[in-house]
Specification:
The complex is a heterodimer of chains A (about 375) and B (about 110).
Chain A: H1 8-28, H2 41-63, H3 69-75, H4 85-105, H5 119-136, H6 156-163, H7 171-191, E1 199-206, E2 212-218, E3 241-247, E4 251-254, E5 260-263, E6 271-280, E7 283-286, H8 289-311, H9 317-320, H10 322-336, H11 342-358, H12 369-374
Antiparallel strand pairs in A: 1-2, 2-3, 3-6, 4-5, 6-7
Helix pairs in contact in A: 1-5, 2-4, 2-5, 2-10, 2-11, 3-5, 4-5, 7-8, 10-11
Chain B: E1 2-11, E2 15-21, H1 25-32, E3 40-44, E4 61-64, H2 72-80, E5 83-90, E6 101-104, E7 109-112
Classes of the chains: A alpha+beta (about 375), B alpha/beta (about 110).
Chain lengths: ~375, ~110
């Protein structure tokens, strides 16, 4: 890995900005309550945070023996890529949230500077996040903010290549795209244990005659890593589905979790062009409407099975599933870097960290204090700076 | 037809069906196997689409006491072109509407048909 390329002052700046936007984005999505009828969302996330705080830095160092952050960031700049923006967010979010829980447990007050117990680890994580992000994104930001509502990742050449697969929308095409989008949305939401993972919107990009172009993607559609994804029914035949839109007079509102809202939300009348394709091996293959609807039907059958499966999970597993769930964000970096047996390395690390991290996370115990801290005074720093 | 509530229509158009309250995952599992699901209007106190994920694309309508035009539920309902009313306020207890035929109207009101 060599010498650090980022000073501790820069580390603190990135941590502060990330924490500020994290808290704002959570607040705007009203996600602080995190209630679910199927999953123990706060505890499963706390489990993963605690594991990654212990295991994450070493995993990132191993990863960088095979590819630099810049190489990874460049390789992620394709339609349908996994890892993608949320994966990168998870690296940073998991580590900092796990670290903050440790500091809260030690009685550190919000915003108080601390002698970081592991400054080299903190620097490893923040430097990885920052270096990947600066190459992955086209602008000079690490994430979208209300002041800079942009999430541009594709080169203009890839945008043009994608636009070449579009056509003016017909009612049938729009209906197929809407239905497939809704089905894949639920499929990924349930496959990822009530997490909007694998659902990614990015843009804006300049389109024909001043129109605004954005992409709506669904990745991880053929997951072979999550233990509960092995369902005995037909699988979706492609690993990603990408929709590209060009419209007049719309505004985009991306957030740091990879979500994208379009204003006005009823934008169909403003659409100039739409397209649907899958992207693999550096090539796009467009979909016919019939193929999209077939994918939608498979997704609907499978997400109903995910639901029925999750209903039967024990209270303990509704927490413990957080380990493979979040390992599933890290493994794609290893695959992209070509690390032999990368899935096993990542899963082993998360399994190794699970027993200790599960110790205080029982269904009847208080929800970890990080979640109260996250919902507290937005003017206070979410993550403590290191001194 | 007696109006019994109102909300914000965020997906689909006017729709009719048998009123059914969904308050647990067991309710959803039962509905998944019920006949005439396509002629059912479900009511949920929550805005989380997780609770009703397997049936949101199959029912005649969804009425939610919470949510908004850009909530996850609204986005998914628009995709399925399922009629969806959010921030709904009922003038009567939901239980009193069980099994009754109701209509969700374009103006966001809900009426009992029988």
């Amino acid at each position: 890995m060599g010498e650090p390329r980022i000073s501790m002052e820069e580390v603190n700046d990135v941590v502060a900005a990330f924490g500020h936007e994290h808290r704002r984005a959570v607040s705007s999505e009203r996600r602080a309550a995190l209630t679910s009828s199927l999953f123990d969302v706060p505890r499963r996330s706390s489990l993963a945070n605690a594991i990654f705080y212990e295991e994450g830095p070493e995993l990132l160092r191993k990863l960088q023996e095979h590819a630099s952050p810049e190489q990874l960031g460049a390789a992620m700049k394709t339609p349908g890529s996994r890892p993608y923006a949320l994966s990168l967010w998870v690296v940073m979010g998991m580590y900092l949230s796990g670290r903050q829980q440790v500091l809260l447990d030690r009685g550190v007050a919000a915003g108080e500077s601390v002698e970081d117990p592991r400054p080299a680890d903190l620097r490893t994580v923040v430097e990885f996040y920052s270096r990947v992000g600066h190459v992955y994104r086209n602008d000079d930001q690490l994430f979208p903010t209300p002041e800079h509502p942009t999430q541009p990742i594709l080169t203009q050449a890839l945008v043009e290549e994608s636009l070449a697969l579009t056509a003016p929308p017909t009612a049938a095409r729009l209906a197929a795209i809407r239905r497939t989008g809704a089905s894949l949305n639920l499929y990924n939401f349930l496959q990822h244990g009530e997490q909007r993972d694998g659902i990614f919107g990015h843009g804006p990009y300049p389109g024909p005659e001043g129109s605004v172009v954005w992409f709506e993607e669904f990745n991880d559609l053929r997951n072979g890593f999550l233990p509960w994804a092995q369902l005995e029914c037909r699988s979706i035949p492609v690993s990603n589905v990408v929709f590209v839109h060009a419209a007049d007079g719309v505004e985009l509102e991306p957030n740091m979790f990879g979500a994208l809202r379009v204003h006005p939300f009823e934008y169909e009348d403003s659409l100039r062009l739409v397209g649907a394709f899958t992207y693999a091996d550096a090539a796009a293959r467009p979909f016919e409407d019939s193929e999209l609807l077939e994918i939608a039907e498979i997704a609907e059958r499978r997400h109903a099975l995910f639901f029925e499966q999750a209903v039967g999970w024990s209270e303990e597993f509704r927490i413990a599933y957080g380990a493979p769930l979040f390992a599933n964000h890290i493994a794609p970096f290893f695959e992209l870097a070509g690390v032999p047996d990368g899935d096993r390395i990542v899963m082993d690390a998360f399994e190794r960290g699970t027993p200790a991290a599960m110790a205080g996370l029982t269904p009847d115990a208080d929800v970890p204090s990080f979640w109260t801290h996250l919902a507290s005074d937005p003017s206070e720093p979410l993550f403590s700076p290191a001194c | 037809m007696a109006e019994v509530g109102r909300g914000t229509l965020v997906a689909g158009g006017a729709s009719r069906g048998r009123f059914c309250t969904v308050s647990s995952v067991e309710d959803v599992i039962a509905l998944m196997k019920a006949p005439a699901l396509e002629e059912t209007v479900i009511f949920t106190e929550q805005a989380s689409v997780t609770n009703i994920a397997p049936i949101v694309g199959r029912v005649a309508g969804v009425v939610s006491a919470m949510g908004g035009p850009t909530s996850h539920l609204a986005i998914v309902a628009r995709g399925f072109q399922t009629t969806c009313l959010v921030r709904a306020e009922l003038d009567v207890a939901p239980e009193s509407l069980a099994e009754k035929q109701v209509e969700i109207r374009e103006d966001g009101s809900i009426a009992v048909l029988e």
